[in-house]
Amino acid sequence: MTLWITGARGLLGSALKDLAGSCIGTGSEVDIGSLDALRAFVKQNPHISHIVNCAAFTEVNRTETMRSEAFRANTLGPENLGRIAQEIGAKLVHISTDYVFPGDIKRPLKETDPVGPLNYYGETKLEGEKRLQKINPAACIIRTSWIFGRGGKNFVATLLKMIQEKEEIKLVDDQWGRPTYAPDLARAILKMEGASGLYQFANVGIATKFTFGCAMRDMAEQLKFPVYVKSLVAVPSATFPSPCKRPAYSVFDSSKIEAVLKTPIRTWQEALREFLCSTIC
Question: Is there a domain that residue 227 lies in?
Fold first, then answer.
Protein backbone atom coordinates (compact mmCIF):
# COMPACT_ATOMS: atom_id res chain seq x y z
CA MET A 1 0.00 0.00 0.00
CA THR A 2 1.24 3.49 -0.89
CA LEU A 3 -0.59 6.27 0.95
CA TRP A 4 -0.68 9.87 -0.26
CA ILE A 5 -1.71 12.55 2.25
CA THR A 6 -2.64 15.98 0.90
CA GLY A 7 -2.40 18.83 3.39
CA ALA A 8 0.27 16.83 5.20
CA ARG A 9 1.72 19.86 6.99
CA GLY A 10 -1.54 20.85 8.65
CA LEU A 11 -2.81 19.86 12.07
CA LEU A 12 -4.56 16.65 10.98
CA GLY A 13 -2.26 15.86 8.07
CA SER A 14 0.86 15.94 10.25
CA ALA A 15 -0.78 13.72 12.89
CA LEU A 16 -1.77 11.26 10.17
CA LYS A 17 1.69 11.31 8.65
CA ASP A 18 3.26 10.55 12.04
CA LEU A 19 1.00 7.54 12.54
CA ALA A 20 1.12 6.23 8.98
CA GLY A 21 4.89 6.03 8.87
CA SER A 22 5.93 5.39 5.28
CA CYS A 23 3.76 7.59 3.04
CA ILE A 24 3.81 10.47 0.60
CA GLY A 25 2.91 13.85 2.09
CA THR A 26 2.31 17.03 0.12
CA GLY A 27 1.28 20.58 0.88
CA SER A 28 0.79 23.67 -1.24
CA GLU A 29 3.35 22.49 -3.80
CA VAL A 30 0.61 20.26 -5.28
CA ASP A 31 -2.48 22.33 -6.15
CA ILE A 32 -5.50 20.08 -5.61
CA GLY A 33 -7.59 22.69 -7.42
CA SER A 34 -5.78 21.80 -10.66
CA LEU A 35 -6.46 18.49 -12.41
CA ASP A 36 -3.33 18.96 -14.51
CA ALA A 37 -1.18 19.37 -11.39
CA LEU A 38 -2.69 16.26 -9.82
CA ARG A 39 -2.23 14.18 -12.95
CA ALA A 40 1.39 15.27 -13.21
CA PHE A 41 1.98 14.33 -9.58
CA VAL A 42 0.47 10.84 -9.79
CA LYS A 43 2.38 10.22 -13.01
CA GLN A 44 5.57 10.81 -11.02
CA ASN A 45 4.25 8.61 -8.18
CA PRO A 46 2.62 5.69 -10.00
CA HIS A 47 2.21 3.36 -7.01
CA ILE A 48 -0.32 5.40 -5.00
CA SER A 49 -3.12 3.10 -3.78
CA HIS A 50 -4.76 5.26 -1.09
CA ILE A 51 -5.34 9.01 -0.80
CA VAL A 52 -6.40 10.99 2.29
CA ASN A 53 -7.37 14.58 1.57
CA CYS A 54 -6.60 16.77 4.59
CA ALA A 55 -6.04 19.86 2.41
CA ALA A 56 -8.56 22.67 2.84
CA PHE A 57 -9.01 26.41 3.19
CA THR A 58 -9.99 26.38 6.88
CA GLU A 59 -9.76 30.04 7.95
CA VAL A 60 -13.51 30.48 8.24
CA ASN A 61 -13.63 34.27 8.44
CA ARG A 62 -11.23 34.76 5.53
CA THR A 63 -13.34 32.58 3.23
CA GLU A 64 -15.90 35.40 3.14
CA THR A 65 -13.44 37.62 1.29
CA MET A 66 -11.16 35.01 -0.31
CA ARG A 67 -13.96 33.13 -2.00
CA SER A 68 -12.14 31.94 -5.09
CA GLU A 69 -9.31 30.45 -3.01
CA ALA A 70 -11.77 28.73 -0.66
CA PHE A 71 -13.81 27.36 -3.56
CA ARG A 72 -10.69 26.05 -5.27
CA ALA A 73 -9.46 24.17 -2.20
CA ASN A 74 -12.73 23.08 -0.60
CA THR A 75 -14.92 22.38 -3.63
CA LEU A 76 -12.77 21.80 -6.71
CA GLY A 77 -10.09 19.99 -4.68
CA PRO A 78 -12.27 17.08 -3.48
CA GLU A 79 -13.90 16.77 -6.91
CA ASN A 80 -10.51 16.63 -8.64
CA LEU A 81 -9.09 14.12 -6.18
CA GLY A 82 -12.19 11.97 -6.62
CA ARG A 83 -11.58 11.92 -10.37
CA ILE A 84 -7.88 11.19 -9.94
CA ALA A 85 -8.60 8.36 -7.50
CA GLN A 86 -10.84 6.75 -10.08
CA GLU A 87 -8.28 7.18 -12.84
CA ILE A 88 -5.51 5.44 -10.89
CA GLY A 89 -7.72 2.95 -9.01
CA ALA A 90 -7.00 4.39 -5.56
CA LYS A 91 -9.24 4.60 -2.49
CA LEU A 92 -9.97 8.13 -1.30
CA VAL A 93 -10.82 9.44 2.17
CA HIS A 94 -11.88 13.10 2.27
CA ILE A 95 -12.23 15.21 5.43
CA SER A 96 -15.24 17.52 5.77
CA THR A 97 -16.79 19.59 8.57
CA ASP A 98 -19.66 20.12 10.99
CA TYR A 99 -20.14 23.56 9.40
CA VAL A 100 -22.37 21.95 6.76
CA PHE A 101 -25.14 22.01 9.41
CA PRO A 102 -27.31 25.06 10.22
CA GLY A 103 -27.19 24.39 13.96
CA ASP A 104 -30.94 24.61 14.58
CA ILE A 105 -31.50 20.96 15.58
CA LYS A 106 -30.74 20.49 19.27
CA ARG A 107 -29.91 16.79 19.29
CA PRO A 108 -26.93 14.75 18.06
CA LEU A 109 -26.83 15.06 14.28
CA LYS A 110 -26.80 12.06 11.97
CA GLU A 111 -25.26 11.94 8.50
CA THR A 112 -28.79 11.97 7.08
CA ASP A 113 -29.95 15.11 8.90
CA PRO A 114 -30.72 18.27 6.87
CA VAL A 115 -27.74 20.43 5.94
CA GLY A 116 -27.70 24.18 5.42
CA PRO A 117 -24.41 26.03 5.96
CA LEU A 118 -24.48 29.46 7.60
CA ASN A 119 -21.26 30.72 6.01
CA TYR A 120 -19.27 30.45 2.80
CA TYR A 121 -16.75 28.04 4.33
CA GLY A 122 -19.57 25.59 5.05
CA GLU A 123 -21.02 26.13 1.58
CA THR A 124 -17.73 25.26 -0.12
CA LYS A 125 -17.23 22.18 2.05
CA LEU A 126 -20.77 20.93 1.43
CA GLU A 127 -20.45 21.45 -2.33
CA GLY A 128 -17.14 19.59 -2.16
CA GLU A 129 -18.92 16.64 -0.54
CA LYS A 130 -21.62 16.64 -3.20
CA ARG A 131 -19.23 16.84 -6.13
CA LEU A 132 -17.04 14.10 -4.72
CA GLN A 133 -19.99 11.79 -4.11
CA LYS A 134 -21.15 12.37 -7.68
CA ILE A 135 -17.79 11.80 -9.37
CA ASN A 136 -16.60 8.98 -7.06
CA PRO A 137 -19.37 7.21 -5.10
CA ALA A 138 -16.82 4.77 -3.66
CA ALA A 139 -15.03 7.57 -1.78
CA CYS A 140 -15.21 7.87 2.01
CA ILE A 141 -16.13 11.26 3.48
CA ILE A 142 -15.54 11.89 7.19
CA ARG A 143 -16.98 15.03 8.79
CA THR A 144 -15.24 16.25 11.90
CA SER A 145 -15.41 19.20 14.29
CA TRP A 146 -13.31 21.38 16.59
CA ILE A 147 -9.96 19.74 15.78
CA PHE A 148 -7.10 20.25 18.20
CA GLY A 149 -3.61 18.85 18.64
CA ARG A 150 0.06 19.70 18.49
CA GLY A 151 1.30 21.93 15.68
CA GLY A 152 -0.68 24.32 13.54
CA LYS A 153 -3.24 26.89 14.60
CA ASN A 154 -6.13 25.67 16.73
CA PHE A 155 -8.33 26.96 19.53
CA VAL A 156 -6.94 24.60 22.16
CA ALA A 157 -3.28 25.51 21.66
CA THR A 158 -4.22 29.20 21.73
CA LEU A 159 -6.30 28.71 24.88
CA LEU A 160 -3.47 26.93 26.68
CA LYS A 161 -1.18 29.88 25.97
CA MET A 162 -3.84 32.30 27.22
CA ILE A 163 -4.35 30.32 30.44
CA GLN A 164 -0.66 30.69 31.16
CA GLU A 165 -0.52 34.40 30.35
CA LYS A 166 -3.87 36.17 30.93
CA GLU A 167 -5.66 36.94 34.17
CA GLU A 168 -9.17 36.86 32.67
CA ILE A 169 -10.41 35.00 29.60
CA LYS A 170 -13.84 35.38 27.99
CA LEU A 171 -15.10 32.21 26.30
CA VAL A 172 -18.20 31.61 24.21
CA ASP A 173 -20.84 29.53 25.99
CA ASP A 174 -23.71 29.39 23.48
CA GLN A 175 -22.20 27.19 20.74
CA TRP A 176 -22.13 23.44 21.34
CA GLY A 177 -20.03 20.83 19.58
CA ARG A 178 -17.76 17.81 20.04
CA PRO A 179 -14.00 18.47 20.16
CA THR A 180 -11.75 16.18 18.10
CA TYR A 181 -8.18 15.24 18.96
CA ALA A 182 -6.18 15.07 15.73
CA PRO A 183 -4.30 11.81 16.55
CA ASP A 184 -7.60 10.06 17.41
CA LEU A 185 -9.12 11.11 14.09
CA ALA A 186 -5.93 10.06 12.29
CA ARG A 187 -6.15 6.57 13.80
CA ALA A 188 -9.77 6.33 12.70
CA ILE A 189 -8.91 7.43 9.16
CA LEU A 190 -6.32 4.66 8.82
CA LYS A 191 -9.02 2.14 9.75
CA MET A 192 -11.46 3.62 7.22
CA GLU A 193 -9.27 3.36 4.14
CA GLY A 194 -11.47 0.68 2.59
CA ALA A 195 -14.81 2.27 3.51
CA SER A 196 -17.23 4.17 1.30
CA GLY A 197 -19.95 6.69 2.09
CA LEU A 198 -20.46 9.51 4.59
CA TYR A 199 -19.41 9.31 8.26
CA GLN A 200 -18.89 11.62 11.24
CA PHE A 201 -16.11 11.48 13.83
CA ALA A 202 -15.39 13.46 16.99
CA ASN A 203 -14.39 12.60 20.53
CA VAL A 204 -17.23 11.71 22.87
CA GLY A 205 -18.80 14.49 24.92
CA ILE A 206 -20.49 17.83 24.30
CA ALA A 207 -18.71 21.09 25.05
CA THR A 208 -18.76 24.82 24.56
CA LYS A 209 -15.55 26.81 24.42
CA PHE A 210 -16.27 27.85 28.02
CA THR A 211 -16.80 24.35 29.42
CA PHE A 212 -13.75 23.16 27.48
CA GLY A 213 -11.71 26.04 28.90
CA CYS A 214 -12.76 25.21 32.47
CA ALA A 215 -11.72 21.59 31.98
CA MET A 216 -8.38 22.64 30.49
CA ARG A 217 -7.62 25.02 33.36
CA ASP A 218 -8.40 22.32 35.96
CA MET A 219 -6.29 19.70 34.15
CA ALA A 220 -3.43 22.14 33.65
CA GLU A 221 -3.38 22.86 37.38
CA GLN A 222 -3.40 19.12 38.17
CA LEU A 223 -0.49 18.59 35.79
CA LYS A 224 1.48 21.45 37.38
CA PHE A 225 1.37 23.80 34.40
CA PRO A 226 2.11 27.45 35.22
CA VAL A 227 -1.54 28.57 35.33
CA TYR A 228 -1.89 32.36 35.53
CA VAL A 229 -5.58 32.85 34.73
CA LYS A 230 -7.78 33.88 37.66
CA SER A 231 -11.17 34.01 35.95
CA LEU A 232 -12.89 32.30 33.02
CA VAL A 233 -15.99 34.23 31.95
CA ALA A 234 -18.86 32.69 29.96
CA VAL A 235 -20.08 35.07 27.24
CA PRO A 236 -22.45 34.90 24.25
CA SER A 237 -20.94 34.53 20.77
CA ALA A 238 -22.13 38.08 19.97
CA THR A 239 -19.32 39.29 22.26
CA PHE A 240 -16.88 38.54 19.44
CA PRO A 241 -18.25 40.05 16.21
CA SER A 242 -17.50 37.92 13.15
CA PRO A 243 -18.03 38.32 9.40
CA CYS A 244 -19.80 34.96 9.30
CA LYS A 245 -22.17 32.93 11.45
CA ARG A 246 -21.31 29.65 13.15
CA PRO A 247 -23.78 26.85 13.88
CA ALA A 248 -25.05 27.10 17.47
CA TYR A 249 -25.32 23.32 17.76
CA SER A 250 -23.21 20.93 15.67
CA VAL A 251 -22.93 17.91 17.96
CA PHE A 252 -22.41 14.73 15.94
CA ASP A 253 -24.02 11.35 16.30
CA SER A 254 -20.97 9.17 15.60
CA SER A 255 -22.65 5.75 15.92
CA LYS A 256 -22.23 4.96 12.21
CA ILE A 257 -18.44 5.23 12.22
CA GLU A 258 -18.17 3.54 15.62
CA ALA A 259 -19.92 0.48 14.13
CA VAL A 260 -17.25 0.31 11.44
CA LEU A 261 -14.32 1.00 13.76
CA LYS A 262 -15.62 -1.63 16.21
CA THR A 263 -14.09 0.29 19.08
CA PRO A 264 -15.47 3.04 21.32
CA ILE A 265 -14.30 6.61 20.76
CA ARG A 266 -12.75 8.05 23.90
CA THR A 267 -13.94 11.25 25.54
CA TRP A 268 -12.51 14.63 24.68
CA GLN A 269 -11.47 14.95 28.33
CA GLU A 270 -9.22 11.89 28.00
CA ALA A 271 -7.82 13.23 24.74
CA LEU A 272 -7.25 16.67 26.27
CA ARG A 273 -5.24 15.15 29.11
CA GLU A 274 -3.04 13.31 26.58
CA PHE A 275 -2.57 16.53 24.64
CA LEU A 276 -1.50 18.42 27.76
CA CYS A 277 0.88 15.62 28.80
CA SER A 278 2.44 15.62 25.32
CA THR A 279 2.88 19.39 25.57
CA ILE A 280 4.80 19.01 28.84
CA CYS A 281 7.14 16.54 27.19
Answer: no
Q: Of 99, 121, 181, 199, which is the active-site residue?
A: 121
* Confidence bin at 269 (pLDDT 50/70/90): very high
In this prediction the pTM is: 0.95
Q: Is 121 a catalytic residue?
A: yes
Domain that holds residue 83: 3-154+179-204+250-266
Residue 281: pLDDT above 60? no
- What is the rounded distance in angstroms from the CA atom of residue 145 to the CA atom of residue 96? 9
